[in-house]
Design brief:
The chain is an all-beta fold. Helix content is about 0%, strand content about 50%.
């Protein structure tokens, strides 16, 4: 009988290409249909479905159908080699299925279960070369039975075309990693005996996971990665089985960066934060992406690593050391082009332990006795920040003290949040270049900038230059000075008012001569040329200036001026040049005529004198008083070489006369007590 055979063009995939051979009554049977019944009593085979498989490495995803063939050769033979059926038919390139009807008789002696035969299949090119073959495969040809489906028989095809002698294949590169949607290019070479290159061997490229990497054409090494991250093997295989593999890792493009930890911490200024700053870079699938550079930056502080590459989990971290400023500080983490970039972290820098003091509000120049404005002293840590936890006592004192002043007011204050404030502190003594110091237990002390204390307005006058050894008739020397002072005794240097001076206690009834009203200069009035004309003990001077409190000098005495004769040739009493002081003696002077030599001094006009002494060490010295009156308030004396000649003269007064030399009286009178030795 003529059975029907149906072959599908081999797609050469491990899905196992199917070819169906149906043997039975001559009829138009579709592939896979069952035989309904035999047409005659002769025994014929039932329908047989032949399933070709291919001798390739297990697990390959695809085998190329790029090997061309044009014919199919089918051979059935008895097991002893006798040919039962052989046929060569065209297999059009455009056809996927080939149907054949053949007559395969069974031997009359064949068992009821069927007859074993040898099956051979060949795929042949137009040149007559066999590129795929199978068999001989022993199959059981069973008698046809109505209602029984075809028996499926598997046969293995082996590639025998060009390059089938290749024994191994090499694939490059051996590994690759890239982002999803990227192009990859692989190449492979086949080698045969003695490592000879076999250029004609077909090489197929497949992937173990086409969602990770896939080939559009199995004969081409051009691949495209999928959108899913993961790993797969690329397989380059020969149709005869040998294969080589390469690993491919696909990771998606990074899309965003987010903070993991590190913000909201606090630490002392200049210290590292206790926890690292960590960010995570992810893709659209919310999983981490490795290999992305994250830049960490902070103004004022520092980071352990400024540029960090993310790890396999997409994490990048660094240690943040705070800067020197107390308060909120910031850090940025930047990954260019990613959503959320740059990230900003904040941390609070706390003041450290107090180690030193510093003036933040210093004393300024002020008026004596007037409190300074508030003075502020800070406790600071080692890098200059306010140590806000310090609440200890801080004490002020005068540092440089040009006026020997005393610091008045509350000079010790407890700090509040690291700051000690002083109000109402003052210095009463004026001076230029004062400074204050601040000290606290355990801290380094500090000295302020310099400042001045100015005198206040004049409140009183005082004698700053007292009258000392006063000689009657001479200017008091040194000059008397009167100083205007403020309420604290400082010289009122801005005072320029008039100061008047006068005699206070006046035991000798003397007259004060000279300029008695003087304008002060820088608070000081200087009286040059003052003199008194009577010698006595217990004088005082008084100074006044408007509403200012006046002053009285210390007690002082006046003494007569010693006036000596200087002309050895003698001469007239009333000639100023004959005397040592360049003037004629006055009543308060003590007159001495003792110049060595022999001469006479003539007095012809009335005078009043306190003391007159005549007589020297050699020669003869004579005072001749003629036709006049000599009034002695103290004593007139002669001694040794001295002589007193009175002619028509009178000596009178409250004083006395002592003669220790020689005396000559002519028509004269001594009306005072007289002693002649």
């Amino acid at each position: 009988m003529r059975p029907s055979l149906c072959f599908a063009r081999p797609s050469l995939s491990t899905g196992l290409a199917r070819s169906i051979l149906v043997v039975g009554a001559l009829s138009a049977l579709s592939c896979g249909r069952e035989v309904t019944a035999p047409e005659e009593s002769a025994r014929v085979s039932r329908a047989i479905s032949i399933r070709p498989t291919f001798r390739t490495a297990p697990g390959h995803a695809e085998v190329s159908s790029g090997v061309e063939f044009s014919h199919l050769r089918l051979t059935l033979s008895q097991l002893d080699g006798r040919l039962v059926h052989e046929r060569i038919v065209d297999f059009p390139a455009a056809s996927d299925t080939l149907r054949l009807s053949v007559t395969v008789p069974l031997s009359p002696s064949a068992p009821a279960a069927g007859e074993q035969m040898a099956l051979r299949i060949r795929f042949i090119t137009t040149a007559g070369d066999t590129v795929f073959r199978s068999g001989p495969d022993t199959i059981l040809v069973e008698p046809a039975r109505a209602g029984v489906p075809p028996t499926e028989i598997g046969v293995e095809l082996q590639y025998t075309g060009p390059g089938s002698d290749a024994t191994r294949v090499e694939l490059t590169p051996v590994s690759a990693g890239t982002t999803g949607g990227s192009a990859l290019n692989f190449s492979a070479q086949a080698f045969g005996a003695l490592n000879a290159l076999v250029a004609t061997a077909p090489i197929l490229f497949t992937s173990t996971d086409t969602s990770v990497v896939r080939f559009a054409n199995a004969r081409s090494g051009a691949a495209t990665t999928g959108s899913r991250r993961g790993a797969a093997l690329v397989i380059a295989s020969l149709l005869t089985g040998p294969a080589d593999t390469a690993s491919v890792s696909v990771y998606p493009l990074a899309t965003s960066i987010a903070a993991v930890q590190g913000g909201g911490q606090s630490a002392p200024v200049g210290a590292a934060l206790p926890s690292a700053v960590i960010v995570r870079v992810t893709a659209n699938d919310a999983l981490g992406v490795a290999g992305v550079t994250v830049a960490f930056a902070t103004p004022g502080g520092s980071v352990a690593n400024a540029n960090v590459v993310t790890d396999a989990d997409g994490l990048a971290s660094t240690t943040w050391t705070l800067g020197p400023s107390v308060g909120v500080q910031s850090l940025t983490a930047t990954a260019a082009g990613l959503g959320g970039s740059p990230l900003e972290f904040t941390a609070t820098a706390l003041a450290g332990t107090a180690t030193l003091l510093a003036f933040t509000v210093t004393p300024a120049t002020t008026t004596a006795g007037v409190p300074f404005g508030p003075i502020a002293v800070e406790a600071r840590d080692a890098i200059g920040n306010v140590a806000t936890t310090f609440v200890g006592a801080v004490t002020l004192a005068i540092g440089t003290n040009p006026g020997s002043g005393v610091l008045a007011g509350t000079v010790t204050a407890n700090a509040v949040a690291g700051v000690a404030t002083f109000a109402g502190v003052s210095i009463a003594a004026s001076g230029v270049g004062y400074s204050l110091s601040a000290a606290a237990a355990g801290l380094t002390s500090v000295t302020s900038a310099s400042f001045n204390i100015d005198a206040g307005p004049a409140a009183a006058v005082v004698f700053s230059g007292q009258p000392l050894a006063v000689t009657v008739g001479l200017a008091i020397a040194p000059a008397v000075q009167v100083t205007a002072r403020d309420a604290f005794g400082n010289t009122a240097s801005t005072f320029t008012g008039a100061v008047t001076i006068a005699v206070g206690l006046n035991p000798g009834g003397a007259t004060l001569s000279g300029t008695t009203v003087v304008n002060a200069v820088a608070g000081v009035a200087t009286f040059s040329g003052l003199s008194l004309d009577v010698s006595a003990a217990g004088y005082t001077l008084e100074a006044t200036s408007g509403v200012l409190v006046g002053a009285t000098s210390a007690l002082f005495n006046t003494s007569a001026l010693l006036v000596a004769w200087t002309n050895a040739a003698g001469g007239a009493w009333n000639v100023a040049s004959n005397w040592s002081v360049g003037r004629v003696p006055i009543a308060s002077d003590s007159v001495v005529i003792s110049l060595s030599g022999s001469y006479a001094v003539s007095l012809t006009a009335p005078i009043t004198a306190s003391f007159i002494a005549v007589g020297g060490s050699s020669g003869s010295q004579t005072l001749n008083v003629s036709s006049t009156t000599l009034t002695i308030l103290g004593r007139l004396s002669t001694q040794g070489t001295g002589a007193l000649g009175l002619s028509s003269a009178t000596v009178t007064g409250a004083g006395s006369v002592f003669n220790g030399g020689s005396l000559s009286l002519t028509s004269s009178t001594i009306a005072t007590p007289f002693t002649n030795q």
